[in-house]
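SAMPLE LOG
Freezer: B-3
Tube label: C17
Construct: single chain, 531 aa
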Amino acid sequence: MDESISVYSTLNEQLLNTYPITSHAEITQQMTATRLAAKTWAAYSVAQRVALLSALKAVILADIDAITDIIVTVTGKVKTEVLLGEIYPVLELLSYYEKNAVRILAPCRLSTAPLAFPSASAQFERRPYGVVAIISPWNFPFQLTLSPLLTALISGNTVIFKTSELSIPIGELIMGLLSRIVLPAGLVQHIIGEAKTGEQLIDSRPDLVFFTGGINAGRAIMARAAQHPIPVILELGGKDAMLVFEDANLTRAGNAALYGAFSNSGQVCVSVERLYVQDSVYSQFVEMLSDATSKLTVGHGAVGDLGALTSLSQYKIVEAHYQDAIAKGAKASAPLQLNGRYLQPVVLWDVTHDMRIMREETFGALLPVMAFNSEQQAIDLANDSDYGLNASVWSGDINKAERVARQLQVGNWAVNDVIKNIGHAGLPFGGVKNSGFGRYHGAEGLRNFTYTVSGLTSRSQLNDEPNWFPYSERRYQQMRGFIDFVFGNGSFWQRTRRNWQALQAFRGYAQSNARQHWENLLIFLCRRRDY
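STRUCTURE (predicted):
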């Protein structure tokens, strides 16, 4: 393995920097330091963590143009995409945690059944895992590193993260931003390397792994983590479907399709990678798309809609999908053209599910369009995929659109909008099928970075309990009667009469704490529908 990695600008291929790869020994040292910090950080209240990390918003806003320039240079995005796709979601997520994290992570008290758990209270709380390893991708290296990193920290964990080898300067940027707010020493560590370094990070035994990337890498991460074992959260990309019905606002839907397919040159896990249009408007819609696509600008001039490809190796997949579709009868709005790192967007139509472009993740500026003739066929076509990350449904009939959306095998959906649902900080985000599992964002996402600890406290003064030893036939009949009293058929009085002898086993509860016991029993009975 090489001992260093050189990173070049996507804009002009100029060398940005050469970075030494983090050694296995250094990873071990960082893990030790991070574990030490974890003990300190877990003792902070959620409110204290949120207060400290919220200071990052002001730091980002103060340097937003400089941050944007760095991300543009490293990724090749256009500046507006950096603001919308990299910076805004981080600020929105921090604002969401400011308002909700304390409530979401608060301990929860539960009621107890008075006969089964007399004089007892029940509760559960959430605790941080400890050290979270975050392995992030090159397509959104700022947002897809910082969002899970902040989620892990607010949950009480510490973090060791590795960005893609194409995005190391973004890791440096993040560490620089974090250094400008007050945090305990060792809370966040940054390691540098390729796949081998990621394996070493997992082998250093973090307590949770959060990975965003492709399906093959995700399988490797999961297999590696299983050896220890370590829980994982995987976000593995998608083959997202967009369904356009004949009663949709076609102008809006067409503009959305272009943005959904070609934003960041198609290098988005929730890109529109399959577009299904009702046959009655199919030809019209394809013509609209082809015409509008030809007017998009590519480059970093005064005006630019699509930026550069972050990874030139990804173009091989894009090209293979394009050639396969053409060879099998698809038509294209233009030939595939790559000028340096700039890829001209292309609409493909008359595609079928026999083509790779409708089966495999493309991650490039190709938009395949296919016709459907009925609501059920649209659902069946959308679900005919190994992936299940995001989808959108377009119709003037909101009830129909939502009905269709709820039948799609995805982790997320939107009606009459595209991609934007992923930016809602309160909505849990993640996929099903080959798009991974686990969630981040929202209450569920925050809780996914913790584990629950449940507790039951008994204040009974009895020397024994009806369910304790010694067992006997009489004890069996008493417990059988108790179960019938609680769960059996008939009214309360019917169950009481037929199980009166069995319920004598619980008379000690009433004698031990009569007032509290009968108050609890009355509450219990009043909650039953048949009393």
